[in-house]
Specification:
Layout: H1 7-11, E1 23-25, E2 31-33, H2 34-40, H3 42-56, E3 60-65, E4 71-73, H4 78-84, H5 92-106, E5 108-116, E6 119-125, E7 130-133, E8 142-147, E9 150-155, E10 159-163, H6 180-199, E11 205-208, H7 218-231, E12 250-253, H8 263-277, H9 293-322, E13 334-338, H10 341-344, H11 348-359, H12 366-372
Antiparallel strand pairs: 1-2, 3-4, 3-13, 5-6, 5-10, 7-8, 8-9, 11-12
Helix pairs in contact: 2-3, 3-5, 3-8, 6-8
């Protein structure tokens, strides 16, 4: 057998060295941390919140494996109840929404397991408030939570720890790190464009006075300049109007428009780069240049398989690894799963047609169909209606389309 080394011998080779949330220099004088970038950078917030909202919308169900091909959904199990309502002040949607936001921004997220007089719960801990601790470099053995009133250290088994990948530490590295250059360029170019647009009314051109014009005294020049600035520039009453010039003077416009500054193109490029960093199809976040009806439909399906699929799998497996063993002595029989059926099965018409084609006949009763439209049941509506041209394979007594001629009523 090749399994000879103990895990402890590997753990003692190094110490835990996990750095906390970092800051990104957006200019020579301004640095922003990850949370502030999400707040202020429109492209980052659009993409990250898009992912978080779409994951939070999915139901998270708890199952028990009954056999190789069968399973049973458990509604009353403590974990099912915990995932439906993690604590007394947070809904399931907000809880999962915050989890995905934390993970997409920091590549790390944390839940604290709580027990208030026997009532178990889960509480989200912001990544900025928590620091992994311990001498085990493979995984943290404790976590320090800091707040304005002090700090508290919790053992690792009291924290559900979600993390991405890093080369040398058991913690994720924010995707924003790979966007440092793009975010810095976006910040600098936005500052430049905003400054130019803000000063555009006052610096939109210059006045040219012919060399053979009458002599202009210093007093007359200053008076003309004050009148021009008070009337035609800034917020003057004639701003944007047509001035009347004297002595053969000529006005030459030199202002830059939003088109000249490539304002829209710059914003769009940054959103494309952020979307690529998070593996989001561009049409999903409003970039529609190359979008068609058919490829948007396919990219919507790809969103829940290629884009969200890895995130959903990570969340499911961390819950199974760190949470289910607290409730079940045989955790391998249980698992959680996000409900993707409503997102991937197409429209009602497509699903109904596919099912009817697969089984060869109707699959709903009248009352089941009425219930979909919020209508009350009717008498006899629980029986399946079978069309006259549909029979089961091998039936020797098909339903006749009309009674025999000798049983027809008299004319």
């Amino acid at each position: 057998m090749a399994f000879v080394a103990t895990a402890g011998s590997v753990q003692r080779l190094s110490r835990q060295n996990i750095t906390g949330p970092s800051r990104i220099m957006l200019s020579s004088t301004y640095a922003a941390d990850y949370a502030e970038i999400w707040k202020t950078q429109e492209s980052v917030r659009t993409v990250v919140s898009f992912l978080a909202r779409n994951v939070a919308q999915l139901g998270l169900h708890f199952y028990e494996r009954v056999g190789d091909t069968d399973r049973q959904r458990l509604h009353d199990h403590p974990i099912a109840a915990l995932l439906r309502r993690p604590n007394g002040f947070t809904s399931r949607y907000r809880f999962i929404n915050a989890l995905i936001h934390d993970f997409c921004i920091y590549d790390n997220a944390y839940w604290l397991k709580t027990n208030d007089n026997g009532a178990v719960g889960l509480v989200r801990i912001p990544p900025t408030r928590i620091t992994p601790h311990g001498d085990d470099w493979l995984t943290p053995s404790a976590f320090k939570v800091s707040g304005t009133a002090g700090t508290q250290i919790y053992p690792a088994d009291q924290i559900v720890y979600f993390r991405g990948y890093s080369v040398e530490q058991d913690a994720g590295v924010s995707p924003l790190e790979s966007l440092r250059r793009s975010l810095r360029e976006e910040w600098s170019s936005s500052e430049m464009r905003e400054q130019i647009m803000r000063n555009g009314a006052r610096m939109s051109g210059y006045l040219e006075r012919p060399a053979d014009a009458p002599a202009w005294s210093e007093t007359a020049r200053d008076r003309f300049r004050r009148q021009w600035q008070s009337q035609y520039s800034g917020n003057g009453p004639g701003a944007g109007g047509t001035p009347i010039l004297e002595d053969g003077m000529r006005f030459t416009a030199v202002s830059q428009t939003a088109k000249d500054l490539q304002y829209i193109e710059g914003r769009k490029l940054t959103r494309e780069e952020v979307a690529a960093a998070y593996f989001v199809p561009p049409p999903m976040v409003g970039i529609l240049e190359n979008a068609t009806f058919s490829n948007i439909t396919e990219q919507h399906k790809m969103l829940y398989t290629d884009t969200l699929g890895p995130i959903l799998t990570m969340v499911q497996e961390e819950i199974e690894l760190q949470l289910i063993p607290d409730f079940e002595p045989a955790p391998d029989r249980f698992y959680v799963e996000f409900n993707l059926r409503e997102k991937l099965t197409g429209s009602f018409e497509e699903r109904a047609a596919a099912i009817a084609s697969a089984v060869g006949g109707p699959t709903m009763t009248v009352n089941e169909a009425r219930a979909l439209d919020n209508r009350p049941p009717v008498d006899g509506g629980d029986n399946m209606i079978v069309p006259l041209n549909v029979t089961q394979n091998g039936s020797q007594t098909p339903i006749p389309a009309a009674p025999p001629a000798d049983q027809m009523p008299p004319a």
